[in-house]
Amino acid sequence: MGIGTVRAADPTDESAGCVDAVGPGYVDAADSVGAVNVTDATDTVVSSSAASAPSLHSNVAQVVGRFAPSPTGRMHLGNILASLLAWLSVRSQGGKLVLRIEDLDDRARSGPWDALLMDDLRWLGLDWDEGPYYQTDRIDLYADAVRRLDDMGLVYPCFCTRAELHAASAPHASDGTPVYAGTCRGLTAAEVVARSKARPPALRLKVPPVQGIASSRGPFESFASESKHSKTELTDFGNSMPRELTFGDCSERGTRGAAASRGAAGGDAGVMHFEDRTYGPQREVLAEECGDFLVRRSDGVYAYQLAVVVDDADMGVNEVVRGCDLLGSTARQMYLQDLLGYAHPSYAHVPLLVAPDGRRLSKRDRDCDMGVLREHFGTPGALLGRLAYVAGLVSSPEPRTADQLADGFSWSAVCEHRDNIAVEECFFA
Ligand SMILES: [Zn+2]
């Protein structure tokens, strides 16, 4: 079982699989960059795969990165930078890149965006070695993963409405997003049955409670056994669902690392530590920053965090490069990796690009989207050279191809410019 079905990859062939997924949103499930949902566009992850899924590569030393766009609109400048850095990192290490179209959400299946995304990547000279793989072809793998988590007693149905989740009384994370309060964690089987008649539930994954964090007992068994229903009915549910919680900014998170030095994947259950290549050591307490999180929405769509983790493991991704708006989802993904027995990939988050006035670039406003940029710059080299200059990768703005930028590429240049990057007026047509 490896990677689901591969569709025709030729982006110039409009008939080849371009219809289901949409483009370049590069949004990871978390709507980060403004209204643009970029799904992990640049997430690249690799790791060992699940026991049942043979790794795509047997050479453990090979770097496997990924482009993982959510095609909800045309790529914009932030997506391009994240894609460029994912590509440069992999190419400069002699690794390979996988293209995965994250089209689980309806919005990502209703436009020409996946075809445009691939056309734009090719135009930029950012090629890939495998794919495109479409998440909608891989649903069975996500279902299996949720079943495994449910077998551990860690999954339960949640009937909360969005309004309930955002209630003023709800606890909030450091960035202001609501933390799930565990409202539905203790429902009895009878209550679940009764409520299911009125509203299809989402499925949530338990995270270890804060008070259990310092405990020396084994990872998850104690709180898993608290579950009143050991198994959740994993039937199909209907529609309407609370969006995944997400974290926003990262320039502030860059300093978080001061107290976090245990390195990747160390620590107690529910406290995730990792070293971000750009933002340094990170530490996050799941119970405080998100609480029990979604693995499947009430409309039956598997949550971004779950799908990404399953796919990265199955595809052998061991290096994830993506926009810093996704930095906050890393801890949840690592927690899932631990539970499912997957290795942690390395993570590098890419600084956020903002307009000259400081606001976030937005797909909605068509700020710097690829249609505009291709027309404006004329050649990929002109665009990439200018973008690399703005991002601090090179010292002058002259045209450069992706291959030329790969020569001498180093993450240290990115780290030195990890605060939000204001793009110059010249990017706006
Ligand atoms: Zn609930």
Give a quick summary of the entry.
Helices cover 27% and strands 12% of the residues.
Q: In percent, how much strand structure appears in the residues?
A: 5-15%
Q: Strand order within the widest sheet?
A: 1-2-3
Q: Which CATH C-level class of the largest domain is it? A: Alpha Beta
Number of strands: 12
The amount of helix comes to 25-40%
For the record, the count of structural domains works out to: 2
Distance separating the two termini: 46 Å
Q: Regions with pLDDT < 50 over 5+ consecutive residues?
A: 1-55, 212-222, 224-230, 235-249, 254-267
Radius of gyration: 21 Å
Number of helices: 13
Average pLDDT taken over every residue:
77
User: Structural class, from secondary structure content?
Assistant: alpha/beta
Shape category: elongated
Query: Which ions and ligands are bound to the chains?
Result: zinc ion
CATH topology of the largest domain: Rossmann fold
CATH architecture name of the largest domain: 3-Layer(aba) Sandwich
Order of secondary-structure elements: EHEHEHEHHEHEEHEHEHEEHHHHE
Major sheet summary line: 3 strands, parallel
Classified in CATH, the superfamily of the largest domain is: HUPs
Motif ('KMSKS' region): 360-364
Binding site for Zn(2+): 158, 160, 180, 184
InterPro entries: aa-tRNA-synth_I_CS, Glu-Q_tRNA(Asp)_Synthase, Glu/Gln-tRNA-synth, Glu/Gln-tRNA-synth_Ib_cat-dom, GluQ/Sye, Rossmann-like_a/b/a_fold
Motif ('HIGH' region): 69-79
